[in-house]
Design a protein that fits this description.
This protein has about 350 residues and is α+β, with helices and mostly antiparallel strands. It has 7 helices and 14 strands. The protein is about 15% helix and about 15% strand. It has a 4-stranded mixed sheet with strand order 12-11-9-13. It has a 3-stranded antiparallel sheet with strand order 1-4-14, with no helix packed on it. Bound molecules: calcium ion (2 copies). It is found in: Endoplasmic reticulum lumen. Pathway: Protein modification; sulfatase oxidation.
């Protein structure tokens, strides 16, 4: 793998161009290190001008039930406090996981679940909002979940991450392109939402995106120095606690956890704060601009750099596997340009006041 290389387009479409910035090059170099490479989803960039189906069934996860409907818009109180953000034992050093630093965050409320397609549909119906993917006319979809028909029409790919394909007509309402819809996944997290789309939804709901510090504090659920929202063991008692990738990425997803793409929100256990899918299922946008440099000074309610090119996303997705994207840890992080959208990127909102 070559640092600072550019993504090579097989064919450049008129309305979409992809580029690879230096940070992406870093990801490339990391590909040779276990756990340090990625699903390539941080490489999905638009220019300034401008997704293996299978049965979704699992034995060891909590089934989506009517009870979930009551939780769908529910927020949980996250009591403020100090915590250790980041880690001194980074799984992916170039992502800026280190150093571990003391951070205090005020109390806030957080969505128990990732925002669902149904919730997003309500927002669209109420406001007429048009997402960026709809404006651009396409979005990135993981090849493994595309129909053969859609795949046959695509003539370009991201060379550094060829499993990502720009699909015409892919958006929140048609997650794998025009031959797909959300009818059977109203209780799944919405995808193909850009950062601005996520901000617009949260504003409409009188909420906002979490800062990275708030998100990570919430992810840790009061635990100290633990990898995951529930502890250090990935599969306690043989149970899956998050929708991740099992198998050989990107060619084979065994779906051992029950899902080869998104899962209904609340399919896996909550952390001690009552939050589901903080890691896995879909990546979640935060309000912070991206940097890999952090002060060790004690911080109160940090909001990240004042400006930047990329926004921070947290938690990893159903595409994450330790061999390729060891980012389903609370300290892990990645980035995308704000106008990026993809089949594994969503969000949840927070608010200072009870809604
Ligand atoms: Ca899975
Ligand atoms: Ca998530």
């Amino acid at each position: 793998m070559v640092r600072n290389s550019l993504l090579l387009l097989v064919v450049v479409l008129v309305n979409v161009e992809l580029c690879l910035q230096s940070s992406c090059g870093g990801e490339q170099e990391a590909a040779s290190t276990e756990g340090a490479a990625g699903c390539g989803c941080d490489k999905l960039r638009r220019t300034a001008s401008g997704s293996v189906d299978s049965k979704e069934e699992r034995a060891s996860s909590v089934k989506y039930t009517a009870a979930a409907n009551e939780k769908i818009s529910q927020m949980v109180f996250i009591p403020g406090g100090e915590f250790l953000m980041g880690t001194d034992d980074p799984g992916i050093p170039q992502d800026g996981e280190a150093p571990q630093r003391r951070v205090y965050v005020d109390s806030f409320y957080m969505d128990v679940l990732e925002v669902t397609t149904q919730q997003f549909q309500s927002f669209i119906k109420a406001t007429g909002y048009v997402t960026e993917a709809e404006k651009f006319g396409d979005s990135f979809v993981f090849e493994g979940i595309l129909s053969e028909s859609v795949k046959s029409q695509i003539t370009q790919a991201v060379a550094a991450a060829p499993w990502w394909l720009p699909v015409k007509g892919a958006n929140w309402n048609h997650p794998e392109g025009q031959d797909s819809n959300i009818t059977d996944r109203l209780d799944h997290p919405v995808v193909h939402v850009s950062w601005a789309d996520a901000v617009a939804f949260c504003s409409w709901a009188n909420k906002r995106l979490p800062t990275e510090a708030e998100w990570e504090y919430a992810c840790r659920g009061g635990l100290r120095d633990r990898l995951y929202p529930w502890g250090n063991k990935l599969n306690p008692k043989g149970q899956h606690y998050a929708n991740l990738w099992q198998g050989d990425f990107p060619v084979h997803n065994s779906g051992e956890d029950g899902y080869v793409k998104t899962s209904p929100v609340m399919s896996f256990p909550a952390n001690s704060f009552g939050l589901h899918d903080m890691v896995g299922n879909v990546w979640e946008w935060t309000s912070d601009w991206w940097t890999v440099h952090h002060t060790t000074d004690h911080q109160h309610n940090p909001t990240g750099p004042p400006s930047g090119k990329d926004k921070v996303k947290k938690g990893g997705s159903y595409m994450c596997h330790k061999s390729y994207c060891y980012r389903y840890r609370c300290a892990a992080r990645s980035q995308n340009t704000p106008d990026s959208s993809a089949s594994n990127l969503g969000f949840r909102c927070v608010s200072q006041e009870k809604q």
